[in-house]
Specification:
382 residues; Carbamate kinase; Archaeosine Trna-guanine Transglycosylase, Chain: A, domain 4; 2 domains; 15 helices; 18% strand
Length: 382
């Protein structure tokens, strides 16, 4: 049986047929603090991915390891603290990282491309669409794109900051059917498997309950950035927009191939039923909100259950200094955020018209931009 045929049946635990996937590889898997990149491990990752590509899947790899590789080349044993040092390490390490991948994928006759992105490339709609076109074009050319954050130029405050979250944003970007985080543990455990012998791997997660969140309160180590907590943030982004996510061990050979064949590998996070449309996905996750608008329960109901727009009458509180056209988060008085959308009014205007009927807007401001504070089409319910 050919490899493509082996992957043909719908994977057992995955709800959708997988055609296009994003795979994230963590620093902890392919690098160690003093020694830098582990060529053997990079080859192992490449072998697994190449097999999946050969079976007809489109794969985008998001790989960490630039800073760890740079640390080793610069003879640094601890992760640098200062931003310029981190950026210098990333600059040295990124080319080392790509050199290793070039070699490893060339053994399978695969071409790779380096794609470095920043938070701004994701927040700006035009740049976002541009990045998407580039990635999709690379896939069409049969090239395997390797994405990382552009650590050398991105300033800390405006970074995505970790590749778990970045990989979820890339999965949105290319409309992937699956996101896989390959790491050095084989899934989410009920306890710390290194210390607790009774800890067992959770096979499937259907909702990110508080109990699940508690399992992820861990510390990242010398090489890794995020640990389990950023993986659950990635899961939230993926699940909410209809993309299944898997955390699995990259330490064993052909994890990805086995996963796609339907073997019970890792922990699968099942998406909510509906897939968010591309623009709503971008609204919900790609842009950091510039402020927060608290609304009453009636307004929330109208927005989430009846498909209505937000009117001034439902607005209770306005936090932050935002301009018309910017993204704001919507919450109830308990602070729980339930939607995000583009506001038609500045924060100052909104403070003056909150709670009033639309017919009163003009009397208060002297003009009226629109009836809606946030139009339905510009709103993503989380
Ligand atoms: N972009 C960083 C690097 O390549 C890693 C960030 C992460 O591991 O989450 O070193």
């Amino acid at each position: 049986m050919t490899e493509a045929r082996q992957l043909a049946p719908s994977p057992r635990r995955l709800p959708t047929k997988v055609r296009r996937l994003v795979v994230k590889v963590g620093s902890g898997l392919i690098a160690s603090p003093g020694a830098g990149l582990d060529a053997g491990r990079v080859r192992q990752v490449a072998d697994d991915l190449a097999r999946v590509v050969a079976a007809g899947k489109e794969v985008v790899l998001v790989s960490s390891g630039a800073i760890a590789a740079g640390m080793a080349r610069l003879g640094l044993s601890a992760r640098p603290r200062s931003i310029p040092e981190k950026q210098a390490a990333a600059a040295v390490g990124q080319s080392a990282l790509m050199w290793h991948y070039e070699q490893a994928f060339a053994r399978h006759g695969l071409k790779v491309a380096q794609v470095l992105v920043t938070q701004e490339d994701i927040s700006h709609r035009a740049r976002y669409l541009n990045a998407r076109n580039t990635l999709v074009t690379l896939l069409r050319f049969g090239v395997l794109p390797i994405v990382n954050e552009n650590d050398t130029v991105a300033v800390e405050e405006i970074k995505v900051g970790d590749n778990d979250n970045l990989s979820a944003l890339v999965a949105h970007l290319i409309d992937a059917d699956l996101l896989v985080l390959l790491t050095d543990v084989d899934g989410l455990y009920t306890g710390d498997p290194r210390r607790d012998r009774a800890a067992r791997r959770i096979d499937v997660v259907e909702a990110l309950t508080e109990e699940i969140q508690r399992l992820a309160q861990d510390e990242a180590d010398a090489v890794s950035v995020g640990g389990m907590s950023t993986k659950l943030q990635a899961a939230q982004k993926a699940m909410a927009s209809g993309i299944p996510m898997v955390i699995a061990s990259g330490r064993e050979a052909h994890t990805l191939f086995r996963l796609l064949k339907g073997e019970p590998v890792g922990t699968v996070f099942l998406p909510k039923a509906d897939r968010l449309g591309a623009r709503k996905r971008w609204l919900a996750f790609a842009v950091p909100p510039q402020g927060r608008v608290t609304v009453d329960a009636g307004a929330k109901k109208a927005l989430t259950e009846r498909g209505k727009s937000l009117l001034p009458s439902g607005v209770l509180e306005v936090e932050g200094e935002f301009q018309a056209g910017e993204l704001v988060a919507l919450a109830l008085t308990d602070g729980k955020e339930f939607a995000r959308g583009l506001t038609n009014y500045d924060a100052d205007e909104l403070r003056r018209i909150r709670g009033v009927k639309t017919s009163a807007i003009e009397g208060i401001l002297g003009y009226k931009r629109l009836d809606e504070v946030i139009h339905r089409d510009d709103l993503a319910v989380l």
